[in-house]
Amino acid sequence: MATIKDVAKLAGVGIATVSRVINNSGYVKTETREKIEKAVKDLSFKPNEIARNMTLQKNDIVAFILPNSTHLFFGELLYSVEEELFKYGYKVMLCNSSEKIEKELVYLNMLRNKIVDAVILLTNNDVESYLDKSLPIISFDRRFTNVPFVASDNYGGGVLAANYLISKGCKKFMFIGDDAQGIHSHVMTEVSKRRVGFIETLEQHGFHDIINIEYPLGDYVVTKEMIKDLVKDYRDVDGIFTVSDAVAHSIVQIYEEMGKNVPNNVKVIGYDGGRSFLNFGKKITSINQDTNAIAIKIRQMIVNYRMQIPNVSQIVPVTISKGDTA
Amino acid sequence: MATIKDVAKLAGVGIATVSRVINNSGYVKTETREKIEKAVKDLSFKPNEIARNMTLQKNDIVAFILPNSTHLFFGELLYSVEEELFKYGYKVMLCNSSEKIEKELVYLNMLRNKIVDAVILLTNNDVESYLDKSLPIISFDRRFTNVPFVASDNYGGGVLAANYLISKGCKKFMFIGDDAQGIHSHVMTEVSKRRVGFIETLEQHGFHDIINIEYPLGDYVVTKEMIKDLVKDYRDVDGIFTVSDAVAHSIVQIYEEMGKNVPNNVKVIGYDGGRSFLNFGKKITSINQDTNAIAIKIRQMIVNYRMQIPNVSQIVPVTISKGDTA
User: Fold this and answer.
1) When you count CB atoms within 10 A of the terminal residue's CB, does the N or C end of chain B come out lower?
2) What residues of B are in contact with residue A78 (Cβ under 8 Å)?
3) pTM of the predicted structure, to 2 decimals
4) Contact call for B281 and A279, based on CB within 8 A
C-alpha cells in the first residue's frame, strides 16, 4: 500500500505539502496541488485508511485538558473529540483542570512519560514554559509559541453577528463577554476576536458608540445577577452580541424583565450553538461552533504527529443559526 | 503502618466488616462497631491515607462508560467522578457509548487486558454476559448480578416529590418519565423507582387517578414537541413530577403556553438538581442527586477493589431543592 512518502516522491514535493493538500489546510500552488492529486490517484493512496490501519488496534491515549467539562460548549467539544478519536483507535482521558495549573502539569508530565500519546490543551494558564514542544500538543483557542492550535473563526463570528443585527435594523449595539485579555494577560486567546470582529464591522458601517461590557474571565457559571448590574443602565440598546449562549439566555431574561420584548425591541445573538439549549426557553439565535469539524481537525493533527507530518494551526468556519431571539 | 488486616485481626472480625465501619455502609452491630473503632484508634489506622499512599503516584486508569456526556446530569456526574478519583491518583478515560454495545465492549476488553484498572458502567444494554465479575466493575443506576452498584435514592426521591406536592395542596397528579423497564426490559434500572415512589406515596394518601406518561427510553434529548402531544389533554393536572430537570423545563413551557401559571395553577418538580440549570428560565424545584456524594461512593468502591475488600451496593440520599416551579 502506498504511503505519504511515496506520494511526495512521485509528485516531487515534501511530505508537509502533501499533508496540506490531503487535509485541505494551508496554501498550496494550484500546479503543485494538481501534481499531488495525480500522485494520490496514481498510487491509490488512501490517507484515512492508512491512519486507521496505523491506529485502530492500538490503545493510544489522548489527554484532553479543559477547565470544566460541565461548561456546555466544552462538554460538547469533549463529546465530539471522544467520538472522532475513537474511530481512529484513540481513547480520551479527561482532565477537568478547574483552572489549576498543578493539575494541568500532572497530565503534561504523563505526556513526557509516554503514559499518554498526545495532549489537547484548553487552558487559561500561562503554561508556555512547561510545554515540551517536541511532543504532540494541540492547543484549542489559545496561542502558545510553536504549538499548533485549532479555533473556530471567532473573528468571522463577530462579523456575522454584526452584519446580521445591522440587516435587522439595529442602531444601538452592545457586546458582552469576558475580559479575555485582561486578567490572564499572558495567554493569547482567540476568543477575544469575537469582540474585535463585531466592533470593527460595526465601525465600518458607521456605528461608533458601542457598549462594551466585560465580566471577569474564567467564571464559567456566569449568573444573571452578575450581568444584571453591568447592563441595567443600557435600556436603549437594540442589538446585543454575547460571548456564549448561556450569557445570551440571561440577557434575554434581564431585558424582558426591563419590559423589553425580544426580539421586537432588542435582538440578542449568542455564541456556541450547542444542542443542549434545545429545551430551555427561547431558542437563542447563535453563532455556531461546529464541534464535529473542530474534532476532525484535532484528530487530523494527532494523526499527523504520529506520521511525523508537520502541523499548521487550523481555523474552523462558523455559521449563524436563526433562533427566536434575533 | 497498620493495615486493614491488622485492624480486623485485633478486633476479631473480618476485613469486610472493618470496611463497612470505615465506609459507614451497611449494618454492623453496635458492639462490633465499637470493637473495630477501638482497634482503629489503638493502631492509629488511617484508611484514607493508606488509600492515598497506595495510589497517588500511580497512573491507574478508570474507564467511565456512559451513554452521552452532554446529558446534563451524566456530565455533572462525570465531572465529580473525575475530580474525586484524581485526588486518589486515578485518571478517568471517557467512553460515550451512544448506547452502542460494540463501543462498550471495547472498554470492557481493555479492563480484561489490564489497560484500564476499573470500569464504571452506566448502560442500558444487556451486557450481563460480557462482564467478567472477577474484575473491578461498578454499575451506576443499573443492576447486574454480582456487580455492585451505586444509585441515588430514586424511590426516596419519588416519595419526597409526592409529599411536597401534597403539602402544597395539589389534587390531580401526573408523572412523566421514560419507559424505564419497557424497551430495555432485560436491564434492571433503579431509575424507574422514581415513578414507583411517587405513585405509591400518592396512593397511600388516597390519590388514585394518577396520570402516568411514558416516552421512549434513551431519548436523552427529549424535545418539547415530543412531550407536548403526550400531555396536552391533561389541563386539569395541578401537580407534576418528571424524571429530569430538562423535561421539567419543557413541561413548564408547555403548561404556560396552555395558559397556566407555574407554580400558581400547576406545580412542577424535576429530578437531578444540576448546576447547569442556574441560568435558564425559571429555576426548577428539583430532587437533587448529589454527584459529589455519588463520586465518593464510587471512589471508595474502586479503592476497596484494590484492597480486596468486598463491595456492597450503595444508595445515596437525595434532597429536595426549592426553586420557582413548585
Assistant:
1) N
2) 69, 94
3) 0.81
4) no
